[in-house]
Each structure stands twice: as structure tokens, then as C-alpha cells.
Design brief:
Elements: H1 8-18, H2 22-25, H3 35-53, H4 57-63, E1 66-68, E2 71-73, H5 76-87, H6 106-119, H7 121-140, H8 143-154, E3 158-163, E4 179-183, E5 186-197, E6 206-215, E7 226-231, E8 233-235, E9 241-244, E10 247-252, E11 263-268, E12 275-279, H9 285-321, H10 345-377, H11 381-416, H12 428-435, H13 445-457, H14 465-481, H15 488-513, H16 518-522, H17 524-558, H18 563-572, H19 574-593, H20 596-605, H21 610-613
Parallel strand pairs: 3-6, 4-6
Antiparallel strand pairs: 1-2, 4-5, 5-11, 5-12, 6-7, 7-12, 8-9, 10-11
Helix pairs in contact: 1-10, 3-6, 6-7, 6-9, 7-8, 7-9, 9-10, 9-11, 9-12, 10-11, 10-17, 10-19, 11-12, 11-13, 11-14, 11-17, 13-17, 14-15, 15-17, 15-20, 17-19, 17-20, 18-19
This protein binds flavin-adenine dinucleotide.
Residues 161-165, 170-171, 195-197, 255, 258, 263, 437, 440-441, 443-444, 446-447, 450 line the site of flavin-adenine dinucleotide.
Length: 619
């Protein structure tokens, strides 16, 4: 069975050949981490993920988390791995050095996450959540709060959680009922939370919950929500652990997947003694949480990509080994040699489709990280704002499109494995179960689609500038490349898809302008899918141009003039094979998959309102 999680050559292509990151890496914001350092990180994390985390993925799934009277036992195998993880220095990678971190770039963090999530998503959520919660304290906490919590959290000695969801407040966070009451100089927290990941776990000494609650006297809805630091054990001013803070886990969920990750119900203040510390200002909690969630959503999209990547590489190896049937040209010959299933066109179709989406999504992900980086380092304030706003348009697309597509690709991986794929013996079965959650948590994909249309594209405060800037960037790419001597037809297809996106968007704008706010909401999900398909098409087209050039350079260097010599070179030379594979994947996508945008556009511009018109008793 394949242990590979990520096509490392492809990752390097995106970083160094497509984004040309070396041009910006020497900026002080990236902590002096060079190309060689990044490549070394890839080498080390792939080894750690393949050798330590992947082998315990199945055990974590089978053993699961166990609840016993308020305590949760995380699978034993995770304890050893977590210790090794901390000792190897993988905690707090992007944290500032003054809090014990390494201050690495967001590119390094994403790379590491891709490997971790591809190997063992249940395990990876523990350190990921802790770093996320610590980052919120780092950004909005007082100096005293930072000094008290961050070192321990970034070291992985204390865990962190995000506590938004309640029984009656899932997508509608503003309906939460958890209360915070000020008594003297203390806040007392009272209420329950549902589905909180890692809210109780025996791998850490303390757990720092970031809890959304309504302060007494605050208005209803999301404008009256504040954010509180609520530790399981109170933390004394000198950093030592104090009393138990009157919050307990009342149970954990039995789930479809993610068995190694504890999903907990929490009860705060049963005895009226649960103390919280306000983070930032009263009633600003949702703003702080959304800021964090923009980054967390990238991480959730990445879970979809990582699952698909591991599933693809496992399927590729399986298809090269599994012997079944004969080649189509020999179908009438009972004595024809039996072949590996990779010889069958339909299996090749599934593999190439997976490869194309995965490589396209990886490029979109790092492009988004690049925009966020430029949002930090561009010299001009207006430029920084432009990049940050474009990054914000990407986030709901990455979260929802990647998680939906990633899940569907794991289903293709099960299909490539046939009946064996449906059985536990092969890891694609677990990958498919584990990856479903990414479309549900961190805001369901339906909510992401509303965010894309309602806030990111129809950004009325900025008169749709972020969307228009992005479309201008896409059009510039087409304009710059349309005269390509051999690839013009593919560039035209990418250009058509971009124009389809824009005419579809204009249709929705016209609806809004004519007072119809409902229709864009009805079609928000197919719109997000169309948007994602276009971004992937743009990035694969860019990759095609680069890979085609590099492949031709190799042909020239090696003196391969005719088709036979070129084919032989691709067979023998890994670099030529890599570029050839990339060209095939991109051309396949641009010819056969990108055309789905036409169908989605027809759906969106149909003005069909059946989903809201059908009476409930007629469903
Ligand atoms: C394994 C797991 C881990 C989790 N971890 C955490 C965690 O660490 N912290 C935390 O706070 N929460 C966590 N959650 C909760 C998760 O974020 C919620 O389940 C999610 O936000 C959806 O809320 P809900 O389950 O109440 O579904 P609902 O909100 O009831 O949604 C049900 C369906 O209705 C749709 N829907 C709801 N409202 C709208 C609307 N206005 N417009 C269009 N469609 C709508 C949704 O898209 C969805 O399809 C976790 C959940 C799970 C299962």
C-alpha cells in the first residue's frame, strides 16, 4: 500500500516555478526561511507524517475516543505520536519566537498541514486547533494574557478549543444562549456548548477554551457576542495551574468518521464558579472569531485537498498493481494477457480527473496564501488592502469547493479500488468517511456560499472592488498569454470560463439591483462551485504554460526531435515525465471538466425558483 501523501514534486513546482516565492522570501516577515529551508521542511514533515502519523491512522479510527465520567481518553497511540510531534518541533511553527515558536511563513505552515492532514486528520486537529486558539489570544489578548497562555499553548503543553456551537445555535451563531455575568472584576460563564472538538482530552495538562457568550445587558444577535478565555484549570499569575474551573464534558459524539478526534458536549458553570477572562472588547467577539475563521477555513479546505491527495496516490499505486481483465483491444481474445487496471481507460479517467483537481486546488491554495503574504508585505497601503480583500474572496471558495471536491475525489478513490475500496483493509474507506466533516464544520458549505455571494462578491461597502480586482487579474492573465504559439486554444477556454463567471455574476448583480435579494441566495451554492472551477482552470492554465515550456526545454537539451524520441524521453526521464503529466492533467481539465461552468451558469441564469416555490407538503 502506498505511504505517499503529497506529490512533493508538484508542491515544489507550485512554490518555486509557479509562484516564484524566492522573489519575496527574503522579506523580514518570513523569518529568513530560504528555499532550501522550505525544501528541508517538506522532506522532514513527509518523513514524520508517513512514518509516525499514517501508521496510527487506522488504530485511532478503530479504538476511537472514550468517555468516562467527564474524562475523555484519546487513543493511546496518539499520546506517543503527540510527544514525538512536540519533540520534533512541529508545534508552534508559525508562532513568534518570543513565545517559543519558529516564526515560519504561512507557506511552511500550509505545507506542513497538508502532510499532517493527509496522514491523519483526527490527530492533526489537536495541534491545529491549539495553534488557532493561541493565534487569537496573540492578536487580541492583553500582554498579560499573552504572557500567561501563549508559551504553554504553542509548546503543546496546553490545548486550545473554539467554542461557538450550541444545541440551538449552529449555523445561526447569533442565537447562542451561553451567558457571561460580571461580578466584581470577574466574568462568570454559564451555559452549554455542543460538538466542541478536543474540549476534553488527556494529552495535555490544561485546556484553554475560547468561548463565545453574551455578556449581561448585551443586545441579541451577533452584535451582542463577546469572546472569553475559559481555562479548564484556572491559571495563576505566575503561570502555574490553579483550581478546577467548574466546566465539564458531559459526553462525546459517536461519529461517521474522525473517531480519534473527541467531539464534546460542555457544561459551563454548573456550580456558578466558571470564570472567564474577556478577550478584547465586549460585543466584539464575532469579529475576532471571523478573523480567525478566515484562516481556519483555509485549513478546512486543505483537509479536503489532503484527503484527496492521499487517496489519489493510494489509488494510483493500487491501479498499477491490481490485475483484472484484458486490454480493450484484446477483449475478444480469451488468452490475452491479464493487465493491471491502470490500462483501462475508465480507471485512467478517474485517476486523471483526481490528479487534475488536486494539482489545480493545490495551486489555488498557495495562490491564496501568496495573496495573504502580499497583503502583509506590499509597500503601499492600498496595494495591501487590495491583496487582503482578494484573499478574502478566495476563503469561502477554498473552504467549500475544496471540501466538497475533496470528498468526491475520495469517493473516486474508493471506486478505483472496486470492492476492496469499500472495505477497511484499504485506507481510502477511512479517508472518505473522515473527509466528509470538512463540508460541515467551520461554517457549513451552504453558509460559505452565502458568504461568497452576500459579503465577498457583493461587497457593497467597497462597491465590489475585491471581486472586480480579481476578475481584472484573471483577464490580465488571459490577455498576457492569448497569443501563445501552441496553447492558445486552451487559454481561450480558460478565458471563456472567466467571462462566464463574470456574466453570471452580473446576472446576480442585476437581480440585486432590481430589488430581488432572494434569487442570489437560491443559487449561491452552484455559483460557488462555478467560481471554484474557474479558479482551478486559471491556475491549471498557468501551470500548463510553464510546464509546456519546461518540457520543450528538456526535449531540446536532450535532442529529442520527433514524437518517438519525445515519448522515449518522457518514459526515461523523471522531470520530463513530471512536466508531461502536468500538461496532460491541465489539458484534460480545460477540455473536459471546465465546461461544467456552462452548465452551472445555465442553472444560475435560468431564474428557476422552484426550490422556494414548491410547497413543503409537495416535496
Ligand atoms: C465533528 C465535529 C466537530 C465540530 N467541532 C466544532 C468545534 O470545535 N467548535 C464549534 O463551535 N463547533 C464545532 N462543530 C459544530 C459545527 O461547526 C456545526 O455542526 C456546524 O456549524 C453546523 O451547525 P449545525 O450542526 O447546528 O447544523 P445547522 O445549522 O442546523 O444546519 C443544518 C443544515 O441547514 C443549513 N442551514 C442552516 N442555516 C442556514 C441558512 N441560514 N441558510 C442556508 N442554509 C442553512 C446548513 O448549511 C446545513 O446544511 C463541530 C461539528 C462536528 C460534527
Amino acid at each position: 500500500m502506498s505511504n505517499k501523501l503529497v506529490n512533493e514534486r508538484d508542491l515544489q513546482f507550485v512554490l518555486w516555478e509557479q509562484l516564484e516565492l524566492e522573489k519575496i522570501l527574503d522579506h523580514e516577515a518570513f523569518g529568513g526561511v530560504s528555499r532550501d529551508d522550505h525544501n528541508m521542511i517538506i522532506e522532514q514533515i513527509s518523513k514524520f507524517a508517513e512514518e509516525v502519523l499514517l501508521p496510527i491512522n487506522l488504530e485511532g479510527d478503530e479504538v476511537g475516543c472514550k468517555y468516562d465520567d467527564g474524562e475523555v481518553k484519546i487513543p493511546k497511540c496518539y499520546h506517543d505520536a503527540f510527544k514525538a510531534f512536540k519533540e520534533a518541533g512541529w508545534m508552534g511553527l508559525s508562532a513568534p519566537p518570543e513565545y517559543g515558536g519558529q516564526g515560519l511563513s504561512q507557506f511552511a505552515t500550509l505545507m506542513v498541514s497538508e502532510f499532517l492532514n493527509g496522514a491523519n486528520v483526527s490527530f492533526s486537529i489537536y495541534p491545529g486547533l491549539t495553534s488557532g486558539a493561541a493565534a487569537v489570544i496573540e492578536e487580541y489578548g492583553t500582554q498579560e494574557q499573552k504572557d500567561r497562555y501563549l508559551k504553554k499553548m504553542y509548546a503543546g503543553d496546553w490545548g486550545g478549543t473554539m467554542d461557538l456551537t450550541e444545541d440551538g445555535a449552529g449555523s445561526a451563531v447569533g442565537d447562542l444562549k451561553t451567558k457571561a455575568k460580571k461580578v466584581g472584576d470577574k466574568w462568570l460563564i454559564e451555559g452549554t456548548k455542543q460538538f466542541i472538538t478536543a474540549a476534553e482530552n488527556d494529552m495535555v495538562e490544561n485546556i484553554i477554551h475560547l468561548v463565545l457568550a453574551r455578556a449581561e445587558g448585551s443586545p441579541p444577535g451577533i452584535k451582542g457576542i463577546s469572546l472569553f478565555i475559559v481555562p479548564k484549570f484556572r491559571v495563576n499569575p505566575d503561570g502555574s495551574l490553579g483550581e478546577f474551573n467548574d466546566l465539564r464534558c458531559t459526553g462525546i459524539e459517536e461519529k461517521m468518521g474522525l473517531h480519534g478526534s473527541a467531539t464534546c458536549a460542555l457544561l459551563f458553570g454548573d456550580e456558578g464558579k466558571c470564570e472567564g477572562e474577556l478577550l478584547g472588547e465586549v460585543d466584539k467577539g464575532i469579529i475576532y472569531m471571523f478573523k480567525l475563521m478566515n484562516h481556519a477555513r483555509l485549513g478546512t479546505g486543505l483537509q479536503g485537498l489532503a484527503a484527496a491527495s492521499t487517496a489519489y496516490l493510494a489509488s494510483l499505486q493500487y491501479a498499477k498493481e491490481r490485475v483484472q481483465g484484458v486490454e480493450i483491444k484484446n477483449m475478444r481474445d480469451v488468452n490475452a494477457p491479464r493487465v493491471e487496471i491502470i490500462k483501462h481507460p475508465d480507471v485512467r479517467r478517474m485517476l486523471l480527473k483526481m490528479k487534475a483537481y488536486i494539482e489545480g486546488m493545490r495551486a489555488v491554495l498557495y495562490r491564496a496564501a501568496y495573496l495573504a503574504a502580499m497583503g502583509m508585505i506590499a509597500e503601499d497601503t492600498a496595494e495591501r488592502e487590495k491583496y487582503n480583500d482578494m484573499f478574502e474572496v478566495f476563503t469561502p471558495v477554498i473552504k467549500a469547493y475544496f471540501s466538497d471536491t475533496g470528498f468526491l475525489l475520495t469517493s473516486d478513490a474508493v471506486q478505483v479500488h472496486g470492492g476492496y475500496g469499500y472495505c477497511k483493509e484499504y485506507k481510502v474507506e477511512q479517508l472518505m468517511r473522515d473527509s466528509k466533516i470538512a463540508s460541515i464544520f467551520e461554517g457549513t458549505n451552504g453558509i460559505q456560499a452565502l458568504d461568497l455571494v452576500g459579503r465577498k462578491v457583493f461587497n457593497l461597502k467597497k462597491q465590489m472592488k475585491p471581486y472586480n480586482d480579481l476578475i481584472a487579474e484573471l483577464r490580465k492573465f488571459i490577455e498576457d498569454n492569448k497569443g501563445h504559439p501552441t496553447l492558445a486554444a486552451f487559454i481561450e477556454k480558460a478565458g471563456d470560463a472567466i467571462e462566464t463567471l463574470d456574466t453570471t455574476t452580473q446576472h446576480l448583480v442585476n437581480c440585486g439591483m432590481s430589488g430581488d435579494q432572494e434569487y442570489p441566495v437560491i443559487v449561491a451554492t452552484p455559483y460557488l462551485k462555478l467560481f471554484g472551477d474557474v479558479l482551478v482552470g486559471w491556475q491549471l492554465c498557468d501551470q500548463l504554460i510553464i510546464a509546456d515550456r519546461k518540457l520543450n526545454e528538456i526535449y531540446e537539451k536532450e535532442g529529442a526531435g520527433d514524437d518517438a524520441a519525445k515519448a522515449k524521453l518522457v518514459e526515461d526521464n523523471n522531470e520530463a515525465a513530471f512536466y508531461s503529466g502536468k500538461c496532460h492533467a491541465a489539458k484534460f481539465y480545460l477540455d473536459t471538466l471546465l465546461c461544467q461552468v456552462k452548465g452551472d451558469s445555465a442553472y444560475i441564469t435560468s431564474n428557476n425558483r422552484s426550490v422556494v416555490e414548491i410547497p413543503e407538503n409537495a416535496f
